[in-house]
């Protein structure tokens, strides 16, 4: 397929862009910037050879040097920004030579600063050990997820890598309370179910999700964020609304941690320090898919039809209709009714309040609805936390330009 070379306005990286991606969003692999690919340059028109030699101005061209150059990263651009041009050799300024005295003075200054820091550290330690001067414990900063969603949709910003989390503790990601009454279990799951709003360059959508795993992490569907099943439309903004419609409603700007298009699952993260440090809902527990039986009573939580129906959560009781298996492994949990658009990504829980499924799809005009098994969702969460976040694009990999 024909391609043409374009460059990143943020990090000035160069890469080849397929001609059919002109005018469509692409993503930078090094700075994770999103932009619309520029139109390919017009082909040069043939020029008749002159009758006599004509002096022409030489145009700078890239010359292969003996020094090995790293492969150009896949790039993306911000919308409506021109592709950067390469600097010509004449524009490269010669770096001034530094006097050896500067290095000597710099080394002396560094030693002095190190000494001052050491003295200050000892003084702080002694003050903290004194019973008359207690020091408040500093809250541990949460791990930063991979792909940051900025406050303004028009200026997406990259984030640092997510620190891997020990996944061995995820067998039960929240304490199970077997003594809970069904009413108390419903209140607990309601409090941890969230309303999710997403925005990209062309549309605004909504869905549901729930807190699971370490504090601040929310599980939802990949398609709620614009990833799949047939196209990739990464969000420019993701908002998580906690206790939607209640007096203590809080809205958080969320960041995308990882996605699995094949499983239709996504993991996002909110900063618990936002909203004046208001406490986040407790994470939910995953139940075992093997314990499910047909006709078992389960409860669906979420926000059907989004804000058209209102800000408050909907709770619908239903039953398990079928356990859809492939080679003996449950791939889908079929339930009888209780789901509609907007429920996607919300939890399906048993009467103990354990998540046994994640709402994903249904057949219009029928009481046939499907949920991703809780075991698969728990495995996805553990995989993402252990890897520090990853984008598992599956069949959509050729369309995902922001490879990491």
Q: Which terms summarize this structure?
A:
26% strand; alpha+beta; Thrombin, subunit H; six-stranded antiparallel beta barrel; 2 domains; 404 residues
Structure at a glance:
With 404 residues, this protein is of the alpha+beta class. The protein is 15% helix and 26% strand.
User: Mind summarizing the main beta sheet?
Assistant: 6 strands, antiparallel, barrel
Chain-averaged pLDDT: 75
Overall tally of structural domains? 2
CATH-defined architecture of the largest domain: Beta Barrel
Structure description:
This protein has 404 residues and is α+β, with helices and mostly antiparallel strands. The chain has two domains: 1-39 and 71-86, no CATH class; 167-399, Beta Barrel (Thrombin, subunit H). The chain is 15% helix and 26% strand. The chain has four helices and 17 strands. The protein has helices spanning 100-129, 182-192, 274-277, 374-387, and strands at 3-7, 14-18, 25-27, 34-36, 193-199, 204-211, 217-220, 237-242, 250-260, 265-270, 297-302, 314-326, 329-336, 347-349, 355-362, 368-373, 391-392. The strands form four sheets. It has a six-stranded antiparallel beta barrel. The protein is globular. It starts with a strand and ends in a 12-residue tail after the last strand.
